[in-house]
Automatic annotation (TrEMBL):
An example Gene Ontology biological process: methylation
Taxonomic path: Bacteria, Bacillati, Bacillota, Bacilli, Bacillales
Name under which the protein is recorded: Class I SAM-dependent methyltransferase
Regions that span the bilayer: none
A single MF term (Gene Ontology): methyltransferase activity
Amino acid sequence: MDSQIEFKMEKELATQVDEIHEQVGKLFTSMLDIGAGSGMLARAMSRRGTQMTTLELVPELVDYARSISDNSITILCGDFYTIELDQQFDVVSYMDGFGVGDDIDQLHLLKRISGWLKDDSCALIDIYNPVYWRKISGQKMRFDKAEREYGYDVDNERMLDTWWHPEQPENALTQSLRCYTVEEISKLCEEAGLKIEAIFPGGAMDYDEWVYSPLVSLNECLSYRIKVKK
């Protein structure tokens, strides 16, 4: 990996770790990161002394995480809708992925998150903002070997992210996430026995200038983070 790219990634990870500590707002020792991917955040948190557990569905990502992580991190492969955990945590995090299924799926997951939390602990969950994704629907991007287009399913309030090879548009793949207003996610959390303690707006991309702003208003951000407690 290019040293400049590696330095930039490490700097961004350090910023994420600082944000998590600030948003939790008190000392904590254990954290469960679900949808953890290759475990970059977990390794950064572990270097700051947090006892990390990660949960990821894709076996290839889990294998990679295990190959580059030390034994201080507990790395689990499984489905967060069904896996049984015998531990509770000071913090549960779900970064950039909430909304994969429908509302019933999200409610089920929130109830599971509640069960994984110790008393007086919290979860940090990134929520996609419908206002932003409606606004940029139709935005296209071209890369060396791929093209991408954002869309929005108004009827189901889902952002659509479609990728295809320029020479094989018939093989396009689309993933989507349910977007929630603050009012909608608050209601869903209440049904799960959780209460939103704080809301942290994220960033947004200006596609006219191709500039990313890391912190914008709640009405402008592509996603916002909620801090929830039992």
